[in-house]
Specification:
Blueprint: E1 2-3, E2 6-10, E3 18-21, H1 27-36, E4 40-44, H2 55-63, E5 70-75, H3 80-89, E6 94-97, H4 103-113, E7 117-123, H5 129-141, E8 146-153, E9 179-180, H6 189-196, E10 200-203, E11 208-210, E12 213-214, H7 216-230, E13 232-239
């Protein structure tokens, strides 16, 4: 099979990249993501985000999620009390910290609600591979509730940027453990997985009709694009 001018070998049993659809606000979008094969669903609890969902609404959405689909809550500089109140209404399986939280704060909040957490790291031009390795080591050393890093694009503000960062900054030894985010969409999902080979990918704006409103066709096409990359062996046979 040829991909962007490169001959590549197909594999029938390659690794399966996990897929998270983030910023869900409606029942029909939850159903579309689950039906298309999403592994995780993200709910934004940052009030300044256009994808914000009230905890009571999120609780209703989560109640309709079938077993073995992970529900993730995105938080920005929330207090332990705020997270506890939200989890009481929306029983999330995993936390995602996207603000200025320190490792100590992340672990304290996660411990307060007894949930594992991901830490979002915003990657900019000055970020190095050594920085990313150091971040992971620091968070992992803090306790058992750290689940891994989510790599997003450094922009002003918090939340979805809709912009891609330089994937080559991700160390090869770290890539299989990270969640790749930042500007992913149907058009670049296959290339993203081929270049990085992350454990998972996270998409929000790339599968939307408008902010906070998902497009079922785009969700399915995005997941198919990721699966196309999964079917391609990492071994490249040569260029055409």
């Amino acid at each position: 099979m040829a991909h962007n001018g490169i001959s590549i070998k197909m594999s029938l049993s390659g690794p399966r990249t996990r897929i998270k659809i983030c910023g869900l606000t409606r029942h029909e979008d939850v159903r579309a993501a689950v039906s298309a094969g999403a592994d995780a669903l993200g709910f934004v609890f940052y009030a300044n985000s256009p994808r914000y969902v009230a905890p009571c609404v999120a609780g209703g959405l989560i109640a309709a999620v079938p077993p073995f689909v992970t529900t993730v809550g995105l938080f920005v500089n929330a207090t332990p009390q705020e997270v506890m109140a939200i989890v009481a209404q929306a029983p999330l399986a995993l936390l995602q910290f996207h603000g200025d939280e320190t490792p100590l704060q992340c672990h304290a909040i996660a411990k307060a609600v007894n949930r594992p957490f991901m830490r979002a790291i915003r990657v900019g031009p000055a970020t190095t591979g050594a920085d990313l390795i150091e971040y992971e080591q620091e968070y992992r050393a803090g306790g058992r509730l750290f689940a891994g890093l989510l790599l997003d694009t450094l922009v002003d503000g918090y939340g979805g940027s809709g912009k891609v960062f330089d994937w080559s900054l991700i160390p090869k030894e770290l890539a299989p453990r990270v969640v790749l985010s930042g500007g992913l969409n149907v058009q670049n999902a296959t290339d993203a997985v081929l270049h990085v080979r992350p454990f998972a990918v996270d998409v929000s704006s790339g599968v939307e009709l408008t902010r906070g409103i998902k497009d079922a066709v785009k969700i399915r096409a995005f997941i198919e694009a990721v699966r196309s990359a999964d079917a391609i062996s990492p071994g490249i046979l040569g260029t055409e």
